[in-house]
Design goal:
Elements lengths: L3 E2 L21 E3 L2 E4 L3 H12 L4 E4 L29 H18 L20 H13 L5 E4 L2 E9 L2 E9 L5 E5 L2 E4 L6 H5 L3 E2 L5 H4 L16 E2 L2 E5 L25 H5 L17 E3 L6 E3 L15 H4 L1 E3 L11 E4 L5 E2 L9 H24 L13 E3 L1 H4 L16 E2 L7 H4 L1 H5 L12 E5 L3 E3 L9 E3 L4 E4 L11 E3 L11 H4 L2 H21 L3 H5 L2 H13 L10
Parallel strand pairs: 2-8, 3-4, 3-9, 4-5, 9-24
Antiparallel strand pairs: 1-6, 6-7, 7-8, 10-19, 11-17, 12-16, 12-18, 13-14, 15-16, 20-23, 21-22
Helix pairs in contact: 1-13, 2-3, 13-15
Length: 556
């Protein structure tokens, strides 16, 4: 019997949900157990349930959705998202989000972007995404049991097979056991991998592994992309520091700078090539050229700025709208609050907590700097009418429930996607103009290879990727026979994680993982056997297409 222990995680206050299982029983059984209700985990649950499976879906946070919800990041999307490049179920999610805004704002919702932002065709409040995902899960409440506020702590099994996972409640500390023939790891950090003894990689593999043009020269397991603690802020244009009260009527305590404000105000990232100056500044490294780039910041309604207005970058709601909040709202997921002083994976619990708290303080410092010190287009300093917006993220302080994690533990997979499969420059070097076409493709995606500055001091790596396919082999570990990866923990490299980590791609990965679990139930076989049979792979692909997945790009 193999047993491994999980690094415990901190408890969070619960939010009411109709899908709760109240209390923790001694054991649960299902056709598939999904550990982690990340974006990929939620979609895997939906895909399995619609195919008739009974599903247990667990989650560390009080709510499902991961980067869409508890981490507070509306989707980053590719340019063809309105026509192709994601499953029908992702289109259904987007339609439901638009429908809520359209009904509340009494306007149409076709091709509608609530935030009119720069990174997505549907920049919207994470609280709305939470409502929509709970609605979608609730439509399968006879098949999906959602258990929030719990983490895996022990996995048991025999040989290369998982029999059960013991979970610990973050509410009362009690434990319960989940048994299933197939387990899916859809946690944000790949937390099931060390528990099960699954081989995995962290950080950068180095040039020797795959010869990737943009890999680091040497392997460095601690070299991970920065994580970010996001926050939502609003702007009260009528507020004056001379008047009584606070902007937006928020608690005055939310406007106080953290004790570490001086540290973060003066912080200069130690990166190579060099960052152009202080982190809290409107200059930063252009991700593609690494040359200094200057931005403007102006939250006033319909502001016209000389340079790109950072307020618009991840804006969630334009000014003049009153639902789900009043006035304009933007999300702080910027270069200025990327946390570079440490990592959250394979560290002690004390280290993890230290870095999480420091990351929160960086974001609070950014808010204070924007309110008091940022340079205004008119030559003045600060926008005191800015304020944190708790309702947008379902928290008391306006910060997200969880950190936005860009890079997880990654399985050593039957297929590892590397830069020579998807990188435009790498493919062009051998005369190819399309990404690798995988015979076992189970989905598609597209985004630039976008790596944020890293914990080992690398500046941005941002290079073009071609529209790519997701091979089934990247979801299947090399050894554990009943484990499927369904989030950022699939078989990519440090480099290709930069284009596989985005919302529509993770959605497609989750869709494939849930469908694979259903094929296991249908055939009585485990993932390696299905992957090893061309006929089984074809049956899985046919099933995915039948329910709306896209396996190949369709260009003239």
């Amino acid at each position: 019997m193999r047993r491994r222990h999980f690094l415990q995680t901190s408890a969070l206050a619960a939010l009411a949900s109709p899908l709760w299982l109240t209390g923790c029983s001694s054991g649960h059984k299902a056709d598939v157990a999904i550990i982690g209700a990340s974006t990929g985990g939620v979609v895997a649950a939906l895909a399995a349930a619609v195919r008739g499976l009974n599903v247990i879906l667990t989650e560390e946070m009080p709510i499902p959705g991961g980067q869409l919800t508890s981490q507070g990041v509306p989707p980053d999307e590719h340019q063809w998202i309105e026509e192709q490049g994601a499953p029908f179920s992702y289109g259904d999610f987007r339609h439901r989000v638009r429908q809520r805004y359209g009904q509340a704002w009494q306007s149409g919702f076709t091709a509608f972007n609530p935030g009119a932002c720069g990174v997505s065709r549907i920049c919207h409040a994470p609280s709305v995404a939470t409502q929509v995902l709970l609605e979608m899960l609730g439509e399968h409440d006879g098949r999906i049991q959602f258990i929030p506020n719990c983490v895996p702590e022990i996995a048991s099994g025999h040989r290369d097979h998982i029999d059960a996972v013991q979970m610990r409640s973050l509410l009362d500390g009690t434990s319960f056991v989940i048994e299933a023939p197939v387990f899916i790891d859809a946690t944000e950090r790949g937390d099931l991998l060390p528990l099960t003894g699954a081989e995995y990689v962290t950080g950068s593999e180095g040039q020797a592994a795959y010869g990737e043009p943009h890999a680091t020269e040497e392997a460095d397991p601690a070299n991970e992309q920065a994580f970010t603690w996001c926050a939502a802020i609003g702007f009260d244009p009528a507020f004056s520091p001379d008047q009584l009260g606070t902007p937006g009527g928020v608690d005055e305590a939310l406007l106080e700078p953290p004790d570490s404000y001086t540290y973060w105000r003066d912080y200069v990232p130690a990166l190579q090539p060099a960052w152009p100056g202080k982190l809290l500044d409107l200059s930063y490294s252009n991700p593609i050229s690494l040359e200094p780039r200057r931005l403007d910041f102006d939250p006033t309604p319909r502001a016209q700025t000389e340079r790109f207005n950072l307020w618009v970058y991840r804006r969630l709601q334009e000014a003049g709208r009153t639902w789900p909040v009043n006035g304009g709202v933007t999300l702080l997921n910027w270069p200025q609050n990327d946390y570079l002083d440490g990592r959250l994976i394979d560290v002690t619990e004390a280290e993890r907590i230290t870095h999480e708290e420091a990351s929160k303080e960086l974001t609070r410092s950014l808010i204070h700097w924007l309110r008091m010190e940022v340079e205004r287009p008119d030559g003045g300093r600060g926008w005191p009418g800015l304020f944190p917006m708790p309702d947008i993220l379902g928290t008391a302080d306006g910060l997200a429930m969880a950190p936005y994690i860009r890079e997880a533990r990654r399985i050593r997979a039957r297929t590892t996607v590397h830069e020579h499969h998807v990188g435009e420059e790498a493919r062009a070097s051998v005369g190819l103009t399309q990404a690798e076409q995988f015979p076992d493709s189970v989905g598609v995606g597209h985004y630039r290879i976008d790596l944020h500055p890293s914990t080992s001091g690398d500046n941005y790596i941002d290079v073009a990727a071609l529209p790519f396919e997701i091979p089934l082999g990247s979801l299947i570990p090399i050894r554990i026979d009943n484990l499927i990866a369904a989030a950022k923990n699939i078989g990519t490299t440090h480099v290709t994680n930069g284009c596989f980590r985005l919302h529509p791609v993770e959605w497609s990965i989750g869709e494939a993982a849930g469908a694979l679990a259903a094929q296991c139930k249908l055939t009585g076989e485990l993932p390696p056997a299905i992957h090893g049979s061309p006929d089984r792979v074809k049956a899985l692909q046919d099933d995915l297409v039948r329910l709306g997945a896209q396996l190949r790009w369709k260009f003239d």
